[in-house]
Amino acid sequence: MEQQQPERREGRSFPERKGQKRKLEEGAAAAAEDREISASTTTDGGGDAILNEIAAQVSVLNSAFSWQESDRAAAKRATQVLAELAKNEDLVNVIVDGGAVPALMTHLQAPPYSEGDLAQKPFEHEVEKGSAFALGLLAIKPEYQKLIVDKGALPHLVNLLKRSKDGSTSRAVNSVIRRAADAITNLAHENSSIKTRVRLEGGIPPLVDLLEFSDSKVQRAAAGALRTLAFKNDDNKNQIVECSALPKLILMLGSEDAAIHYEAVGVIGNLVHSSPNIKKEVLSAGALQPVIGLLSSCCPESQREAALLLGQFASTDSDCKVHIVQRGAVRPLIEMLQSPDVQLKEMSAFALGRLAQDSHNQAGIAHSGGLGPLLKLLDSRNGSLQHNAAFALYGLADNEDNVSDFIRVGGIQKLQDGEFIVQATKDCVSKTLKRLEEKIHGRVLRHLLYLMRISEKSIQRRVALALAHLCSPEDQRTIFIDENGIFISSCLLTGLDLLLGLPGSTNTKQQLDGAAALYKLANKSMALSPVDAAPPSPTQRVYLGEQYVNSATLSDVTFLVEGRRFYAHRICLLASSDAFRAMFDGGYREKDARDIEIPNIKWEVFELMMRFIYTGSVDITIEISQDLLRAADQYLLEGLKRLCEYTIAQDITLENIGGMYDLSEAFHAMSLRQACILFILEHFDKLSTMHGQNQLVQRTIPEIREYFCRALTKSTTNLQGLRL
Description:
By secondary structure, the protein is mostly helical. Among the domains are: about 440-525, no CATH class; about 545-690, 2-Layer Sandwich (Potassium Channel Kv1.1, Chain A). Helix content is about 65%, strand content about 0%. The chain has 40 helices and three strands. A three-stranded mixed sheet has the order 2-1-3. β1 (about 555-560) and β2 form a beta hairpin. α20 packs antiparallel against α21 and α28 (about 455-470) packs parallel to α31. It is elongated, with a radius of gyration of 41 Å. It starts with about 25 loop residues before the first helix and ends in an 11-residue tail after the last helix. Residues about 10-35, about 480-490, about 530-540 and about 715-724 have low confidence and may be disordered.
């Protein structure tokens, strides 16, 4: 069975913008200036004022490309105003239409330096930073990614990544590098062609180098860009690995800065995704233990990524599955199952599902407390989370040591009663129940019988309910007989009485569970000990055949039915039932009579009864079945009686079940009564809410007990006098 892997995305968490883009932060020093700019760009003039503002700033950028201090100051402010406006996505189209992209593009590089310029470069790096920031914000809209790249942004952004090569590490340098990395992230987001173009422009090596940069924000921005570039792009993945990124990323996993280890584990996850060879390199480089360590991080985003990555590590490599468990991943993963964060629960369930496919891990996960939280997740209305939990439970069900725990925590009822969203989950649950059913034998069965004897009442009930559903028909006897062949009456009383007591409980859930279990058990017991077969005739049956039905040929007795003559033959009647034998061989007046009057039976009913006597078969309709049942009972025709009961049973409904049960009692119709009992158990939920039918349910409980005692003990009558 395949497990659906949670979708890995290019970037998650920390973003606040639509589309899961990276959060583009402003430094503390720029915050006050931003507030001033924001105030100045929030005009009361509406759309025209904004259009005018955009046009003015674009004009400044187009005319202020020089090292003169006034031009640099004006250009810096223009990039900041446009960036502030671009934070409102509703204005992005207006900004682009206003010609901002080519104007900003110009300022991604320093202006040319001439002899007349001052030796000191005013606002060095500041204008380029503002341009990169504004373009990154405009790239949040996918339709503008290609436009910006086609205008030539990538070579300039890659050059900005190298601004620290001259040894400068000022705050301005750090900021421009970070803005360039963020802009690359947004330009390449979910755009495979731009990811490739970044590689072709030489963007990957400087980004890898920046993973060791002294400024943590730059490290994070570089990792974020690599994470995007690695997503579903094999050539980019290979180049990132070839540039020796793995050792640097693994060191970042141990950072105390949550944002850094979040990005690092995200890059590794995207590198590993669908790349078995890179996965091997990552494990060989020593990533496993740091990733496991992130499961206990205070950052839920890193926890999610770590759990997803462990699931990827455990996809096919059995040794890796064992190593992950040995290194302490199970308990934190189980704790994550109980988090209020849905994604965190989904990723941990995914990882545990992968780990649970290894036989060495299954018992450990269950005994570490994994069963309860996984079962609880089946109640989720999130289809992916529900399926991952179901898949993990499917793995755990493969171990005999877990069967009792499944039953003890109510897992069987949970699996049976769950409302599952997708078909794949329904199929998975069905296979899990099948796995558990196949293990109800040998030492597992003996342990369950032990629990049914010594546990508290609630556990006893769960065991009894589970055994009713899961035990095979052949093992029903074993459930109540020990390995030495001695009948355990206490077990019979414990298990059967527990089930029989549930329909009469005041707890609605227990009533429904008990009825469902008894219905299942009844169906299984019929396979072993059917109680509705017609008893053999006391004498050899003689069928004269269809041609003699109501035929005067060789007739030696005539019945008068509703004033009409029906010709019959004593030899056939004598062989058919004790009633006719008594009539013709006993001391009744009919013994020597030529004509015998039959009162209280309709002609068509009598004719069908005689046709059965002569041929051994008859077609019975619903309309005549009850009258024919009365006649068959009166004349002790058990075979015909069973046929009538079968026909009547096909017509049982919620509305007539009471009358049908009364009919079965009136004519001692055991087969019909059994059908009524099964119908009551099958439709217990509806009957228990119908007016007047609850009394019927309670009335049938003694008969239900009698039926099960017959069915379950029939094969052990020779042992009933023995005790353990």
